[in-house]
Amino acid sequence: MISKLSKSNAKETISYALNECRLKTLNLFEGVDDATFRSQYHPDFSPVGWHLGHIAYTESLWLLEHSAGWRCLFPQYRKLFAADGLPKSQRVQLPNLPEIRYYLHTVREKVLEHLEVVNIEPEERLWRFLIQHESQHCEIISFVLEMAKRHQLSVNSYQLSVNSHHDMVMIPAGEFEQGNNSIDALDNEISAHKVYLDTYCIDRSPVTCGQYGEFMAAGGYENPEWWSEAGWQWLQVEKVKQPLYWHSDRSYNDHPVCGVSWYEAEAYSRFVGKRLPTEAEWEKAASWDAEAKRRRTYPWGEELPTDEYCNCDRLIGTTTPVNAYPSGQSAYGLFDTLGNVWEWTASWFAPYPGFQSFPYIGYSQVYFDNQHRVLKGGSWATRPWSLRSSFRNWYHPSVRQIFSGFRCAANI
Q1: For residue range 160-170, what is the model confidence (pLDDT) as tens digits?
Q2: I want to staple 339 with a disulfide (CB 3.0 to 4.6 A). Which of 222, 259, 311, 381 is the partner?
Q3: Using CA atoms, how far apart are residues 147 and 141, in angstroms rounded to an integer?
Q4: Is 347 in contact with 373 (CB distance < 8 Å)?
Q5: DSSP state of 249
């Protein structure tokens, strides 16, 4: 995990993070058969094997070709594993796992050699970006593997929660600091800037399976009253009746609902007379310490994410009850703002003041198109390198394959 060490220790910190992250990446493929490795389980997502090769390709491109000035070590993979090389549907023709592992190992071996001689200070942000890039693709691998598990399943039953909490926290009006200027911050998190918000209320915890089950039992998927026009049109096409990762087991009643689209989250919010929080409202409630008048990197403070504070890094391998980590509460008393499930917000993904793309326009800038909603907080599969209150995820509102949930907000 990347710690806050002096510049003199930056290489040691990065080397440790590179190796730790890679070990976690390879562990994901233990027991994965060749069919699962190559199969495309949803048209919007590539096979898990492609993501593994793309990690090696991106590391080679930026650290060996751009930074070290080397020629491409594996030119035969350039078109296959580049993000803009082939349509997702054509990414199933892959080398096998041992071949891609050899690709990863060879690139990494050369990267570590380069790390020994590079002047790290002007490039530190790039190296940290690539650790987070691998972490993000690991999460995509995680939910594609989850889709693979459920490919043959059809779960239609549910039970109502016996302990359905609707507790909200009032966040007083005032300024807070949104965004992040640290060396780990990705381009879309920069720059930190002051935002004023009126008083509002926000759920103390994410919406649980038990609470969402009430919406399902009340005919929420059949009643257009709760849906926006776009949401209802989406529902008529998709014809879904429950979240993608729905559990009928009563023991999940206090777990956050997982695998919902933005449209489903919006419909539930209307059903209970609330709304989705804006990105700024979510971030203030999760990160702002009003007493100290400062932003916290994590809801609980500056200590790095561990299993004391949140459910992340596949430590549990599934969701946990929304109140399972009292030590991870924010200054305002919110539970589960980091880890467990990503949380949809009402905001479109847009640049902050002074935005500059890094390391390339295609990472964030091309998605500032008023077609992608912001998600905050991370999930049970998010690596700690990509876990902080300022981190911004974004997807089209129709996507439900990610480990996504939500919490509601309300005006005063």
Answers
A1: 333 334 599 99
A2: 311
A3: 10
A4: yes
A5: -
Structure tokens at 304: 């790095």
**If you search the block for the tokens 């991106």, which residue do you land on?**
58
The tally of CA atoms less than 13 A away on the side-chain side of residue 94 is 28
For residues 357 and 187, what is the distance between their CA atoms, to the nearest angstrom?
6
Question: What is the rounded CA–CA span in Å between residue 345 and residue 330?
Answer: 18
Going from the N-terminus, what domains does the chain have, and what CATH number goes with each?
7-149 (1.20.120.450), 168-411 (3.90.1580.10)
* Cα 307 to Cα 149: distance, rounded to the nearest angstrom: 25
Residue 386's identity, in one-letter code, is: S
292 secondary structure, DSSP code? T
How confident is the model over 22-62, as pLDDT tens digits? 999 999 999 999 999 999 999 999 999 999 999 999 999 99
And the tokens for 363?
Answer: 């990472």
Contact 128, 185 (CB under 8 A): no
Residue 64's φ and ψ, nearest 5 degrees, are -95, -45
Query: Pick from 268, 215, 201, 288: which is nearest to 404 by CA?
Result: 268
Residue 346 phi/psi, 5-degree rounding, is -80, -10
